[in-house]
Amino acid sequence: MKSTVRMALLLAVVWSTASATAGTPLSALQAYLKASNTDQFDYFGWSVAVSGDTAVVGAYGEGSNATGVNGDESNNAVIGSGAAYVFVRDGTTWTQQAYLKASNTGLNSNGGNVTFGGDNFGWSVAVSGDTVVVGAAQEFSNATGVNGDESNNAAIGSGAAYVFVRNGTTWTQQAYLKASNTGANDNFGWSVAVSGDTVVVGANGEDSNATGVNGDEGDSDAVFSGAAYVFVRNGTTWTQQAYLKASNTAWFHDFGVSVAVSGDTVVVGADGEDSNATGINGDESNHAAGSSGAAYVFVRSGTTWTQQAYLKASNTDAFDQFGISVAVSGDTAVVGANKEDSNATGGDGDEGNNAALDSGAAYVFVRNGTTWTQQAYLKASNTGPYDFFGLSVAVSGDTAVIGAYPEDSNATGVNGDASNNDATDSGAAYVFVRNGTTWTQQAYLKASNTGVRDYYGFSVAVSGGTAMVGAYREDSNATGVNGDASNNTGFDSGAAYVYTVPGGAVTPPSPLVVSITGPAGSNVSFRVQGPPNSPVTIEHRSSFSTGSWQILQSGTTDGGGAFNHTDTGAASGMSKYYRARTN
Questions:
Q1: Which residues, listed in sequence order, are joined to residue 366 by a DSSP beta bridge?
Q2: DSSP state string for 286-307
Q3: Which residues contact 302 (CB under 8 A, 6 or more apart)?
Q4: pTM exceeds 0.85
Q5: Distance between CA atoms of 458 and 443, rounded to whole angstroms?
Q6: Contact, 21 vs 519, CB < 8 A?
Q7: How far out from the chain centre does Cα 76 lie?
Q8: 463 in helix, strand or coil?
Q9: How far apart are CA 442 and CA 423, in angstroms?
Q10: What is the DSSP letter of 161?
Q11: 28-500 has which CATH code?
Q12: What is the Cα gyration radius of the chain?
């Protein structure tokens, strides 16, 4: 008797490079995003986030005095107050859905005609489904906790985060978040992350010498040691669930410079940490490698958080700033080290030299049960000094995107000529895909309008088969989606770019069927994940609801529960439907 697979089933799809039609890009630009009120020095694209068909772009330099959602964006009365923009996709078409501002925009007055807000709303952004979080690392109030008094300016640079929710197509602010121990210059909101009903906010300037979870937050004995705060939602009410510190708190460790969350797992980066340990759970007690950096994994059981792992690079070195960026998806974490120095290229090259100063690297870690191991050491395909590869990282399933904002080639689009340095600091992003346990670079992304010092790749995000890249110093005066990118009259206005990328896990129209549309003539590779040694058959047909299913391959999952199949030359530019079943 044949039945459809009832086991926990992952059907991951990868465009294969080996037999794709010559000249067909494996990633494609889907949209060029600009603010609805583009202006000089707004820095749109400083931060980006994407979840399914929703994208968010932060512009911390934006200057209107509007408050809340879709207010008057036409003035510059509060310079540096900041904004965030929500875009949504229908099919392949993106439109702006909301213009977000803080509920307390423009409270920092210099007494003159122009208010210098400086709250930097949009410094960080995150999105999960219908929830958006925006960080304002320089917000001034001395409120604590959730929905406190936001009307004063008694704690300069303490920072805040704002939660917005969508009902239908309407966005409203749901919460105003502050630290439980608000202090001046704590930079709460420097980094934010969200997964479902859990929000994490980093405050890299926080000063307590507490260690671990929910320690004594009342002192200021470890300047800029940093902290992270976990908030949870019950219905529409947010409360702080945990106060996270490093297990080896010390001055200037910058813990909270980056945060990431996936379900019950949080990763926090500390790019100023300075032990010379390597790998997982090494000796964290020394200070022999200044600013080598570290990342910390925390896990939740019920409502209790504990530290699960202390991550270091496999080639720890002083000033590498491992932890400047972090990302997590399920049991996979990626950590960037933008000042790592080897001249290796691609995956798992020679990490032992320092021949390319500040070229940068990224490290992939995976969890088996409660044990973490390093799975890959990633470098750019065109490694160069001062490219800062790894300043930004993102991961979703088997796809990772790494940014290198000072990269210098004048290439445009996907997989162009990376060999020159003719466009200083134009920037690049790199897409890596995992097959089994092996990571390979699948795409080299450049802007469609590459320009000198555009800083493309300063921010990156990925969700399934959609990637975003921010270029906060891009200069066109275009507004909205897919406008005229050819001029440079909007100095440092900024832009963001949306791509269809390989390797994303596909969300099926039912639990058992996936629809694939890909580059003509390219391969479609599947990995089915289930119990070890289980029978699996891959089938396909051209219609979701009609026609006979045709068998492509039958076999059993291996000892790790994986079954791999490649449908050679399957994609034709039209949708094709695949499913897996047991025999």
A1: 332, 373
A2: ---STT-BEEEEEEEETTEEEE
A3: none
A4: no
A5: 17
A6: yes
A7: 29
A8: strand
A9: 23
A10: E
A11: 2.130.10.130
A12: 23
Task: Supply the CATH classification number for the domain 3-20+509-582.
Answer: 2.60.40
545 DSSP assignment: S
The pLDDT score that the predictor gives to residue 12 is 39
Written as one string, the DSSP assignment of 68-101 is SBS---S--SBTT-BEEEEEEEETTEEEEEEEE-
Cβ atoms < 10 Å from Cβ of 38: 21
Cα–Cα distance measured from residue 395 to residue 11, given in angstroms and rounded to the nearest whole number: 17
**Among positive and negative, which fits the CA dihedral 51, 53, 54, 57?**
positive
Are the CB atoms for 561 and 529 separated by under 8 Å? yes
Give φ, ψ of 445 to 5 degrees.
-100, 135
Cα→Cα distances 448→84, 438, 457, 488, 565, Å? 23, 30, 13, 14, 34
d(CA 472, CA 122): 12
d(CA 50, CA 457): 15
Nearest 5 degrees, angle CA 343-CA 346-CA 348?
85
CA dist 406 and 386 (Å) reads 7
Q: How many residues does the chain have?
A: 583
Q: What is the pLDDT of residues 408-454, one digit of tens each?
A: 999 999 999 999 999 999 999 999 999 889 999 999 999 999 999 99
Q: Cβ neighbours of residue 416 under 8 Å, at least 6 residues apart?
A: 409, 444, 446
Question: 37 is written with which tokens?
Answer: 């009120």
Name the one residue in this structure whose structure tokens are 């490649």. 566
Q: Which amino acid is at 322?
A: F
Domain residue extents for the chain: 3-20+509-582, 28-500
* Sequence-ordered list of residues with C-beta below 8 angstroms from that of 434, at least 6 positions apart, any chain: 364, 376, 398, 399, 400, 503
Confidence of residue 537 (pLDDT cuts 50, 70, 90): confident
> Residues 6 or more apart from 115 whose CB is under 8 A from it?
65, 77, 78, 79, 106, 108, 109
Tokens of 10: 């992952």
Reported confidence tier of residue 502, pLDDT bands at 50, 70, 90:
low
| pLDDT tens digits, one per residue of 244-257 | 999 999 999 999 99
